[in-house]
Specification:
Bound molecules: NADP nicotinamide-adenine-dinucleotide phosphate
Mean pLDDT: 96
Number of helices: 9
Largest sheet: 7 strands, parallel
CATH superfamily of the largest domain: NAD(P)-binding Rossmann-like Domain
Distance between the termini: 31 Å
Low-confidence stretches: none
Number of domains: 2
Structural class: alpha/beta
CATH topology of the largest domain: Rossmann fold
Number of strands: 7
CATH class of the largest domain: Alpha Beta
Strand order of the largest sheet: 3-2-1-4-5-6-7
CATH architecture of the largest domain: 3-Layer(aba) Sandwich
Radius of gyration: 18 Å
Shape: globular
Order of helices and strands: EHEHEHEHEHHEHHHE
Length: 264
Amino acid sequence: MPTSFGLKDARVLVTAASQGIGYGAAKIFLEEGARVVINSSNPDRLEKARSSLSPLGEVRSVTADISKKDEIEKLVSETLKQLGGIDTFVYVTGSPVPGPVMEQTYEAWESASRLLSVSPAYLARRVGESMVDRKIKGRMVFSASYRIREPSPTIALSSVLRTSIGGLVRTLSRELGPKGIRVNAVLPGYIMTGRINQIAEDAARRRNITKEQATAEIESQIPLGRIGTTEELGRAIAFLGSEMSSYITGAMLPVDGGVLHSIG
Ligand SMILES: NC(=O)c1ccc[n+]([C@@H]2O[C@H](COP(=O)([O-])OP(=O)(O)OC[C@H]3O[C@@H](n4cnc5c(N)ncnc54)[C@H](OP(=O)(O)O)[C@@H]3O)[C@@H](O)[C@H]2O)c1
């Protein structure tokens, strides 16, 4: 789909981008002419993604586990070496295990906290510093989940811990707004990736139904009647990550086919 977000030569970092939502976002930025660094924790999967995206434009990669402090430092410094600065930062992350609160161990909460709450805040700090130091009026887009507004016991770790992205976006947008840096989030509903397969498989196992039945049940809850694509979400991310959204900051945009029912 032809679009023009004015992103030609924009320097973009997308985390957790070897597949799924992050990969789809990187693809849209490349199609728009941006220079992109993609990240994930697995070097083989990341290289496979980099090589499949490379016909679209300038794409590089930095392997780092974003749940670890030292690897966050490495990711930001290597990205800055490669791009010279970051104009748009797109935060995506991995998935914690599904299941209700009553099944989660202390260790599961601890590692999911690092993955879902600590990593976006610390990455935001490091990327924000790089923008302030270089006087870049940059953009940050955090991919969270519509579940931060409508928690579900089927994915308790995600429902509880990802709410911190709401606090981060509201806090940081006030902190960095005076420097011209905008901070927003997208709240994906159901987007067709490996994560949806995992959720459908988990629901099927718990309820003794097939994965296809579980997927059909998900689709029946969505007013638009289907699961979204990573490209559809990627275009919303590119909008918030470009100057097309120049007067929007501190916003959390559902991209969910209408599945979110609440007003707030
Ligand atoms: N799909 C949906 O409908 C949906 C809806 C709402 C929210 N979400 C959330 O959005 C995020 C992305 O979902 P997805 O559907 O794109 O999942 P996915 O297809 O499973 O992709 C997850 C990506 O995260 C990377 N990753 C995992 N752990 C990482 C780490 N510690 N450091 C760096 N990269 C890491 C993986 O790459 P490596 O394995 O190579 O590291 C992979 O590229 C997840 O947090 C998911 O829970 C998804």
